[in-house]
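Input/output pair, single chain:
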Amino acid sequence: MPSRKLNTEIRVGLALMLIVPLLFLAAVSLVYYYSSLKTNLLTENRKLASLLSYVLAHDLSMAENHLVGLADLMDKKLIPEKSVTSIIQNFVKAQNNLKEIRIVDSLGYVKQVFPPKENLYYTDMSGLAFIKEASRIGEATWSTSYLSFEEGKPISSLAVPYKHGFIIAAFDLFSFNQTIE
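Output:
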């Protein structure tokens, strides 16, 4: 009888000697797996942030170049007054990330809004810092980012001076994320 008890104790001891290292190995494997997963997620997030940054910079730069070119053509009177409205309307439709364009006179009052918003006509924008800066240096100037009053989305605006005032374009920065997706 004592040999059976000894046999059982040896088996239990051997089982424990095998189970403990296996449990330790499983724990180490889990820690390594989660560490690798975290590293991969960080790498993917960095890639996505880099791609989003590139798309944002590229799209905003292209839109800025188009608006500066439009202002230049308006200054040189190479675009008939009647055509400016349709050109801007088509530009707004073509830009997925463009919230609106405002044509502002030299005193800072809104003359036109695309798409049309009656409540914005004759709004005084002369006190905005980026418009003052654009007027002072005579070049396109970006605003700091801000939240839109209507939707609470991040917006950045561009003021492009021309002979009779400014072209002001408001870009929905949140929509650039949808462009990537």
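The mean pLDDT is 85. The beta strands are 98-105, 110-114, 141-142, 146-147, 154-162, 165-172.
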